[in-house]
Design brief:
This protein is mostly helical. It has 13 helices and 2 strands, in the order H-H-H-E-H-H-H-H-H-H-H-H-H-H-E. The chain has a domain of 182 residues. Helix 3 crosses helix 4 and helix 3 packs across helix 10. The two termini are 27 Å apart.
Length: 279
């Protein structure tokens, strides 16, 4: 358990809301309450699971391990598919996501970390998303020019609120296949579920869990988050070797994204995979 704290945001900072993200976070949670009354049919569950798998892999393999940490190389079409599916998780455009996450690695659990639990558990979990980022108003594509490059299919997702476009497309897909109940489970409930599991990496994985590597931060391995996020929960491993494309280093550290990366490398679809120190 962490013992020190960092100053919490001043009250004036708390009021500096990111209106687009605050609206999305609040309204989606309100809509999600309908799940307590409207139970899923088989097709709704299939949409929930299918899109959860696609977007969780896309955030872990695409946004995180490929774009942010450059853990492997792939061709343009695969990068575009992973990035658009990642945007369908409604976690912001790829350059903004990568920039904020790189700042987390540069100053982990120190001043400048956008979401350390040392500023409060709720701040680390979801509070930071509803506030304006320290670099809000900047063109994130220029701050991390390697992420989108000059690829218009990637750059468009960091323009205004266009990162929501792939998410709306999944909503239309669910509506066409299964009506409004399909939208509720396949889009809203699926997004909320992945949001909270992803946010747990920033909150839970810096407070509770195992620390097999002696990193200079509070990062932890949390097995159940390793399962739920397809490998992102092995967060202490990840902080020990951020560029390694595989996060589960022991046979029992289940890392579905890592297994997919190994498979894609074996068949030659991706290459130059940055290897983990063991496992
Ligand atoms: Zn971390
Ligand atoms: Zn990372």
């Amino acid at each position: 358990m962490i013992g020190t704290t960092l100053p919490r945001p001043a009250s004036t900072d708390r009021l500096r809301l990111n209106w687009i993200q605050s609206f999305l976070v609040v309204s989606l949670h309100v809509c999600g309450l309908l799940c307590f009354w409207i139970w899923p049919r088989a097709i709704d569950l299939a949409l929930f699971l299918g899109l959860y798998f696609c977007t969780t892999f896309a955030i872990g393999i695409g946004y995180h391990r490929l774009l942010t940490h450059r853990g492997f190389k792939c061709n343009t079409w695969l990068r575009r598919i992973l990035t658009w599916m990642g945007a369908a998780a409604l976690q912001g455009g790829p350059a903004r996501w990568a920039r904020i996450h790189r700042r987390h690695h540069q100053a982990t659990d120190k001043h400048g970390d956008p979401h350390t639990p040392l500023m409060g558990f709720l701040h680390a979990h979801m509070g930071w998303i509803m506030r304006r980022d320290a670099e809000e108003g900047s063109d994130y594509r220029e701050l991390v020019p390697d992420v989108s490059g000059d690829d218009p299919w990637l750059r468009v997702l960091d323009k205004g609120a266009l990162f929501t476009l792939p998410w709306f497309l999944t909503g239309i897909f669910c509506y066409v296949l299964a009506g409004w109940r399909g939208v509720l489970w396949g889009t809203i409930a699926r997004t909320l579920t992945l949001w909270h599991f992803t946010w747990c990496i920033n909150s839970v994985c810096h407070v509770w869990g195992q620390r097999p590597n002696n990193t200079k931060d509070e990062s932890r391995n949390v097995w159940w988050l390793g399962l739920a996020t397809f490998g992102e929960g092995w967060h202490n491993n990840h902080h020990a070797r951020p560029t390694a494309a595989v996060h589960g280093w022991q046979w029992y550290e289940v890392d579905l994204s890592g297994y997919v990366i190994r498979l894609l490398a074996r068949v030659g679809i991706i290459w130059q995979v940055v290897r983990a120190p063991r496992g």
